[in-house]
Amino acid sequence: MVKASLKYATFLLFTLLTIVSYGQRAGRMKNQVTISGYLKPRPAIGNFCVTLRTDNDTFRLAVNASGYFTKTIKNVSSGAHPGMASLEYNEDGCHHTVKYFVLDTNVISLEVNITSGEWTVSGGRENKVEELFNGIGKTYAGKMAAENLTMPGMDSISMQKYLLELALIQQYNGSYIAYQRLKTLFRPSTYGIRDRIRAAIERLDTTRFSPAERTAMLKKFSDYVEESRKRMDGALFPSLQFEATPGGTSFQTLASRYPYLLIDVWATWCGPCIQQHPYLNKLATENAGNKSYAIAGVTISSRKADWDRHLKAKPFAYQQYWLDEKQGGQLAEKLRLYGVPRYLLLRTADSVIVEKDIDFDDLEKTLQMYRDQQQ
């Protein structure tokens, strides 16, 4: 046991010193890569194999008595677009695991825990970026496995994941892995954050990616936006010019502070709307400290003077906004609104209306459901 640990420590030290001595980073590597690995614990049976696949070749690797293997590959692509490889481990024809990694430096080491299925890759910058993305994926896969998860809850978890991935892409805007991951965000469910995706494309490192590559990606992005627009526009909250109460918080600022907004659409002449406001005020007061949602009142089909008088006579515990006839008409058309009050839930990250018509008696239950899924 001690001898094996010493061998493993020596192996890691040798790998680390080799990487440092080369001093390579993605885009500067030579056309030769040495891949070293370690299986722990080493399988007791002989019926197993380790296979290395690159873009051009397949190699079956010999594993020594201590669980180590090594292979030097020649003619590996270098520069802005490093080659990819995968390591496959098979045991007794039953257990099969695959790990993908980037040939981004002259020496790459892999550690495979055949009991847990965990892999560790030590290589260059691209492998570091890949592991960061994998970490996000693993975290959110765990969240997706939660019991009693609803479809809206799954959508919200996915959006959190997309935003973290997008932040990582912007941080590593010269990474080929980030470049490839950016293209995976071209999907209908990210339509609400399309402006952020475009900004990430425009910020790609011009010293790493050619004008032709960036132009091609923008073309693909434009096609994705047009196709998604046909599917998603009906689900998006419109961009409107809200008038807030004097000294109040703007609608955009309020939306930036919470994952969700419960929007109370009402009118000054609407009796049922006014009857339900005390409950909404109570709900807003009792949940003032929560970080999952805020309530926003939006008044339509009402004169501004009547709105002002109503707010002075009956103050609200939640932020109020007024829309003029044109803006209110746009909202009514979007929501297919034929009467008020109307309660809807807005996911602020991508402006998607996740609940278009919440029954008054279900308000608290609906908010609690989304709040639970933020935990």
Blueprint (SSEs and pairs):
Layout: H1 2-22, E1 32-40, E2 48-54, E3 58-61, E4 68-74, E5 83-91, E6 95-103, E7 107-113, E8 119-122, H2 125-144, H3 151-171, H4 176-183, H5 194-202, H6 211-232, E9 243-244, H7 251-257, E10 260-266, H8 271-286, E11 293-299, H9 304-313, E12 319-322, H10 325-335, E13 342-347, E14 352-355, H11 363-372
Parallel strand pairs: 1-7, 10-11, 11-12
Antiparallel strand pairs: 1-4, 2-3, 2-5, 5-6, 7-8, 9-12, 10-13, 13-14
Helix pairs in contact: 2-3, 3-4, 5-6
Describe the overall structure:
It is a single chain. This protein has helices at 2-22, 125-144, 151-171, 176-183, 194-202, 211-232, 251-257, 271-286, 304-313, 325-335, 363-372; strands at residues 32-40, 48-54, 58-61, 68-74, 83-91, 95-103, 107-113, 119-122, 243-244, 260-266, 293-299, 319-322, 342-347, 352-355. It has 375 residues and is an alpha+beta fold. The protein has three domains: 32-123, Sandwich (Immunoglobulin-like), CATH 2.60.40; 128-231; 235-373, 3-Layer(aba) Sandwich (Glutaredoxin). α2 packs antiparallel against α3, α3 (151-171) packs antiparallel against α4 (176-183) and α5 (194-202) packs antiparallel against α6 (211-232). The protein is 41% helix and 23% strand. The strands form three sheets. A six-stranded mixed beta sheet has the order 9-12-11-10-13-14, sandwiched between helices. It starts with a helix and ends with a helix. It contains eleven helices and 14 strands. α8 (271-286) links the parallel β10 and β11. The model is unreliable at 1-30 (pLDDT under 50).
